[in-house]
Design goal:
- The chain has 18 helices and 15 strands.
- By secondary structure, it is an alpha+beta fold.
- The radius of gyration is 21 Å and the shape is globular.
Length: 434
């Protein structure tokens, strides 16, 4: 994995601005000169020191709740998603259609996926926004690389089945996302470093200019068909431990070197929904989940951005040998438990629960479970559904979860309690819509 450089992508990025490569490089150089002066080593050290404190206090969520108020959400047929632990509210940076907050969609059923061309082409990105984003990526030495990604066009329920339409056109890629909507997280953190939270709320359009232009209203979030709406899965993997008669759920803290959610607690696996080999054949959310399960948790060789494999599902044989495919093992289940929009970047977030009830799996494969380069230290690498519950609940009450991570594990625990109540003693964890 190598760090992103402007040289690697100048031509590709210039094309999404509608300007020449020379113009982009000139603008990038100006931004780099300004930011290099602003972010001296002392200021960068302050950033890495203060950012964990900011997110641990939930200041980012507080700002987003004010920018996108409940009445605006309601007018656009959305509701706020909150998690409650023993009655204490844990706000998330998520909003959802009411019917998607708490779902139960079996991913092994015949859900419908389609690849189509969008009715609207994406507008060019402002060159100043792109140059600023590139300069931040370069200055903080973030691990970024370009890759094809699915753009959401439509998502709905047909009885108990999911019906989803994506596009995968030219310029609908990760780099375009990261230079636009994907940069709003970094901008929000910078705003909270520059001014106090009350000032930022009152003057957010002045301090969060990229957000004001790209995602300046709830309407812009709800009308996802008109923008580059990307997203992915956040999986709660529950593994049965026969000797303890419980389930364990792996968690992680993201590294400060990743492109988004730096330093925040999340789940394993999580991933953007994107094709690696065949856009037409990788639309199914199952494939993204199984690929990331193989890579992130089971130590499989990570797919490079230009995969040499001819078959998109080449890793499935290994998973089948382990008895992990829900379609071939009745002791495993895979389902969607909720779908929401992330207010930070407008992403769609799919919460998934994967339950491994095969009594042999933990004893046979526990030493194979790993984390990857995206992770940092975490207080509890596994949550138990029966033991050390005060520590688990304390962890759930932390404000520094990726919003979709907390949502996924809370919904996962709710659903897991329905599937196997005897082994799940974590009562008082609820997902409500506000």
């Amino acid at each position: 994995m190598v760090a992103f450089t402007i040289i690697q992508a100048a031509g590709a990025v210039a094309s999404i601005t509608g300007r020449s490569t020379a113009t982009l490089v000139q603008s990038f150089n100006k931004k780099m000169e300004y930011l290099t002066q602003k972010w001296q080593e002392e200021e960068k050290a302050r950033y890495f020191e203060q950012v964990p404190k900011i997110i641990s206090k939930g200041l980012h969520t507080k700002v987003l709740e004010e920018i996108y108020p409940p009445q605006d959400l309601q007018e656009n047929e959305l509701v706020r998603v909150s998690v409650f632990v023993d009655g204490e509210r844990c706000p998330t940076a998520l909003a959802a259609k009411p019917e998607f907050v708490c779902t139960q969609v079996n991913l092994e059923d015949e859900n419908k996926y389609a690849l189509d061309k969008p009715e609207n082409s994406l507008p060019n990105l402002d060159i100043d926004i792109v140059a600023q984003s590139l300069a931040e990526i370069q200055l903080f030495n973030l691990n970024i690389w370009n890759q094809s990604i699915y753009r959401l066009l439509d998502i709905k329920m047909d009885e108990s089945h999911l019906v989803t339409t994506f596009s995968n056109e030219h310029k609908e890629d990760f780099l375009r996302y990261r230079c636009g909507l994907g940069s709003l997280w970094h901008e929000l953190l910078q705003g909270l470093l520059d001014v106090d939270v009350d000032t930022l709320i009152q003057e957010w359009r002045q301090h969060l200019k990229r957000r004001a232009q790209l995602l300046g209203s709830v309407e812009a979030i709800a009308d996802y068909k008109k923008r580059l709406c990307v997203g992915g899965i956040h999986a709660t993997v529950a593994i049965l431990r026969e000797d303890k008669d419980d389930y364990i759920i792996p968690v992680q803290r993201r590294s400060m070197k990743v492109g988004g959610g730096q330093g925040m607690i999340s789940l394993l696996p999580e991933a953007y929904h994107q094709p690696m080999v065949s856009p037409q054949n990788e639309l199914d959310f199952r494939l993204t989940f199984y690929r990331e399960l193989y890579e992130e948790l089971l130590g499989g060789k990570e797919l490079e951005k230009k995969s040499k494999h001819l078959c998109h599902d080449w890793y499935m044989d290994d998973l089948e040998d382990l008895g992990l495919l829900a379609s071939t093992n009745p002791k495993c289940t895979l389902e969607i438990t909720g779908i929401a929009f992330n207010l930070i970047s407008g992403n769609y977030e799919v919460s998934v629960l994967f339950v491994i009830r095969d009594k042999r799996f933990w004893n046979k494969n526990r030493k194979r479970l790993v984390t990857n380069w995206e992770t940092s230290e975490v207080e509890l690498p596994f949550f138990s559904t029966k033991y050390d519950l005060p520590s688990v609940k304390k962890a759930l009450l932390k404000h520094d979860w990726i919003g979709s991570g907390l949502y996924s594990i809370a919904r996962g625990l709710e659903r897991l309690g329905e599937i196997d109540k005897a082994r799940v003693d974590i009562s008082g964890v609820k997902v409500n819509k506000f």
